[in-house]
Structure formats: structure tokens, C-alpha cells
Amino acid sequence: MTTTTTSYKVLSNGQGAVVKAWTEGVPFDDKTEAQLLAVASMPFIHRWVAAMPDAHLGKGATVGSVIATSGAIIPAAVGVDIGCGMMAARTSLTTSALPDSLSALRSRMERAIPHGRGSFGDDLPEHVERAWSGLADQFAVLEDKHGAKIKGDHAAKQIGTLGGGNHFVELCADEEERVWIMLHSGSRGVGNRIGAYFIERAKEEMRRFFITLPDTNLAYLAEGTEGFDEYVEAVSWAQDYARANREAMMEAALSALSTSGELPPFDARGFVVSCHHNYVAREHHYGKDVLVTRKGAVRARKGDYGIVPGSMGAKSYIVRGLGNPESFDSCSHGAGRKMSRTEARKRYTLADHAEATAHVECRKDEGVIDETPMAYKPIDDVMRAQKDLVEIVHTLRPLLCIKG
How far apart, in whole angstroms, are the C-alpha atoms of residue 390 and residue 304? Predict the structure, then answer.
């Protein structure tokens, strides 16, 4: 049964909580709706589940969902890219200062920020050493507790690295032709290991107590248990790692541009925005302290700044939260995929991708067809659907995009 209000749809199957979906003009498919309702059926959901305009099918929980829980946490709802998020910095440069070709600047930034499967070697750059120094002691504590399950030699070497998939670094221009650096990445390999380890631990708990779920990936850890406490500790560290990773990348990108010889001196400290969009946090909503898991969603309390990126060929937005309580003070984390990577590779050709990104200095090869702009929902439709969640502060158009 579906009923409609002025700003969102209410989805219900009569079991458990409802789903409030901000999806007018950007509908999702039946599988995504079923997944949202499955999450809402869990007994510890607080009030309802909120679905953002970029919602699409995920593993266990929907990408683009906000899940407030009381007394339990679902590790797969956070996922394995723990702390994935965005950072953007406005520079004092204007587009008139940029060279006619951005190819050389792109190459410099690609050398400064390892991407794809790349990482740093044993001799870490100074900015990476500095970022790791604030995380190393607590990681040693986690390694002592969990051993080989989370241990990895690359945790230090991957700070300041991009990864692959939909992670990116961009140069953009706003409505006043000011140049921005914007980037998207998370907790890399170590976050993946932490996430996968605790997802399996939660599944073991379900098997131990003979708990049947609508989806095994909705396995949860109950508050007051050792597994819950250890997950909160580990996920908090991974979220800190992800933020440090983005800050190190931003430092490297700024250094690459400032030493390029192609640009005049500039500053980038005037306006900086940083936000997670795959994470869990303790918050207070509707009279209760709860755990809020945002799986592909950004916190948008009144006055909060956030970043809603489009695709590698579309506009992105710097936004300010309106503090809508019904979304648990949240908004979308991007345009959201409208098709799978496999479908995108089947449907679009290299020529299609080159045409869609003709205005952007970026990769135009078969390896990024699954990230082509047509694989994503129209970002303007997404913004219209969440007009009661955020207001637009700046509109950014892409000039240069680096993909892993």
C-alpha cells in the first residue's frame, strides 16, 4: 500500500515500521522497495526508515537510506566502505587562471594521488606519515583484539589514496567561476576488512540464537554485547581513517596544483566542506538517543553544509541542511545509480561516454564505461525531490575528473 504526502511517499506492507521516501520524480524499482520494507520490518527500527532520492538496491540495506535503531546495529547497513564521503575546498582561483588544456594538471594530480589499486610504498610521504600518526596507536589496539581478521600491511600505505569504482577527484567551477577541488573516497582496504569481519560476526550471532531474518545481510549486533561494543569501537576508528584519507588527498591535490608552474599563487582555506555518507553515529531523534546509520546519505541538520555530487559529467552541489526531522536530518549523497555496472557496460559505447564527457578532462576508455553519466539518475531531479531537506548554496560544473 502506498499513500502520498506533500514531500514524500509512505510505503508500508503492514509489517513493522513504514518507509518515508523522498523520491518524487526519481522512482526506484520494486526490488529496492522490497529491500527498504525488509529493513523497516526489523524490531529495533526507531519510528521509520527514510529513503533518499538517490535510493537504489544495495547489499542488505538500500543505498540512499537512513536507518535509526534502538538497541542494535546492522553492520551490513554501514557496509564495507566505512566512512566513505566527500570533501570540497573552494580556491581563490578563477577559471580564467586555468590553462587551455587541463591534461598536464590532471597528470600531476594522478601522480600525487595513487588511484585504482595503487598505494604508497614503504617510504611514506610526509603528509601520509602525519595522517597515519594520529591513527596508528588505536589501530594497534584493534589488531591486538581481532588479529588477522582486520590486520593489513596497507593501512598506512593507503592513506591519501583514491581507490576505484565511483571514487573520484575533480576540479570544478561554481556559478562565479571560482575553482573548487572536490573528492570522494573512504576507508580503503582496512575499512573493507573491518566491515566484512563484523558482518560475519553478526551472522554468527544470528545462527547462534537461531534468529531468522528476511535477508541474512540484516544480521545485527545487540547493544550490551561484546560484539556490539567492539564493532562501535572499530567502525569509529574506520570513520576517522576515512576522514584522514580525504584530508591527505586534498593536501596532495592542492600541492600538485600549487607547484605545477601553470597556475598563479592561490589559497584554499576560505570554504571547506567535509562529510561522511556511509557511517553510523549516535544522535537524538524524537525524544530518544538512537544509532543512525546513513548508507549513502548525508547529515543535513539545519545549517549543516554537505556535498551532493552528480556523475563524472554532471553538475554537483554544495548544500545547506534544512533540518527536516522526518528524514532524521538527512539528504541524498549523490545522484544515485539508475542501472547496474554490468548493464551500463552493455548499454553504452565508448563513443557514448566520450560525447557525454566531452566538456570534462577525464578518462575516456572502456574501464570507466560503468561510471558514465548515463548510468546515474539526473542530478537535477534528485535535487528537486529533496527541496525540503536541503537548500543549494553552490552549483559546481566539472572541469577535470580523476577516476580510479
Answer: 9
